[in-house]
Automatic annotation (TrEMBL):
<feature type="transmembrane region" description="Helical">
    <location>
        <begin position="169"/>
        <end position="192"/>
    </location>
</feature>
<feature type="transmembrane region" description="Helical">
    <location>
        <begin position="204"/>
        <end position="224"/>
    </location>
</feature>
<keyword id="KW-1133">Transmembrane helix</keyword>
<feature type="transmembrane region" description="Helical">
    <location>
        <begin position="12"/>
        <end position="37"/>
    </location>
</feature>
<keyword id="KW-0812">Transmembrane</keyword>
<dbReference type="GO" id="GO:0030026">
    <property type="term" value="P:intracellular manganese ion homeostasis"/>
</dbReference>
<dbReference type="InterPro" id="IPR008217">
    <property type="entry name" value="Ccc1_fam"/>
</dbReference>
<feature type="transmembrane region" description="Helical">
    <location>
        <begin position="140"/>
        <end position="163"/>
    </location>
</feature>
<feature type="transmembrane region" description="Helical">
    <location>
        <begin position="43"/>
        <end position="66"/>
    </location>
</feature>
<protein>
    <submittedName>
        <fullName>Predicted Fe2+/Mn2+ transporter, VIT1/CCC1 family</fullName>
    </submittedName>
</protein>
<dbReference type="GO" id="GO:0005384">
    <property type="term" value="F:manganese ion transmembrane transporter activity"/>
</dbReference>
<dbReference type="Pfam" id="PF01988">
    <property type="entry name" value="VIT1"/>
</dbReference>
<dbReference type="GO" id="GO:0012505">
    <property type="term" value="C:endomembrane system"/>
</dbReference>
<keyword id="KW-0472">Membrane</keyword>
Length: 226
């Protein structure tokens, strides 16, 4: 049980870090490239990027905290609901679990045997897993997710900010764009790996989102600065 909890917490921290870094790269690159379309002042670009990174860090951390906390609250409510269901409609819950096993291709006799054994051992945990898809006592830390995101977001935002302010004016937009797309490809791949999604599609989707963001913000900046 302890090992499973530790693994869940570790995966949650990594997920929050990857998503935080990805958002930091994407959000701040959009800001600095947009401002670069309106002005060549490195100081103005840096200040805009810094303000965006600061606001994004707080927003991302609070968003992670609220999101994970809400998920934990929803699981607590599901547990209370299931306790009541077992007290009032035990046979209905028993039949539900048995039907779930039969839908997975298990024979009626084997499904009955498995359900009887599991319901005798842990009726609450068994029905929670089958009805809601989560395991009891595996609550994720909202604080850990928030801290992980709060650290990762500004680290991700450093790449576009430094590239845009330190590189020569005539190449910085193109060089920043290339660096950002490479970074987005890496974070998109990592996010897909953690979630079990299609890595190629997720990576391409993340890169295309970055391309779209940078093009739109640069054009808007150019129009404003014209």
């Amino acid at each position: 049980m302890k090992t499973n909890q530790d693994l869940a917490q570790k995966n949650n921290i990594i997920r929050a870090a990857v998503m935080g870094a990805n958002d930091g790269i994407l959000s701040v690159s959009g800001i600095v490239i947009g401002v670069a379309g309106a002005t060549t002042s490195s100081f103005a670009i840096f200040i805009a990027g810094f303000a965006g990174a600061l606001a994004g860090t707080v927003s991302m951390a609070m968003g992670e905290y609220v999101s994970v906390h809400s998920e934990n609250d929803a699981q607590k409510k599901a547990i209370l609901r299931q306790k009541s269901a077992l007290q009032n409609n035990y046979h209905e819950e028993f039949d539900f679990v048995k039907e779930r096993y039969m839908q997975q291709g298990i024979s009626k006799e084997l499904a009955l045997t498995a359900t009887t054994e599991l319901m005798n051992q842990d009726p609450l945990g068994t029905t929670i897993k089958e009805r809601y898809g989560f395991t009891q006592h595996h609550e994720i830390s909202a604080v850990s997710a928030a801290i992980s995101s709060m650290i990762a977001f500004p680290l991700g935002s450093l790449l576009p900010m430094l590239a845009m302010t330190l590189l020569p004016v005539h190449i910085r937009i193109m060089a920043t764009g290339i660096a950002v797309l490479i970074a987005l490809g890496i974070t998109g791949f990592m996010a897909a790996h953690l979630s079990g999604a299609d890595k190629q599609k997720a990576t391409i989707r993340n890169i295309m989102a970055g391309v779209f963001t940078m093009i739109i913000t640069y054009l808007i900046g150019s129009l404003i600065g014209a």
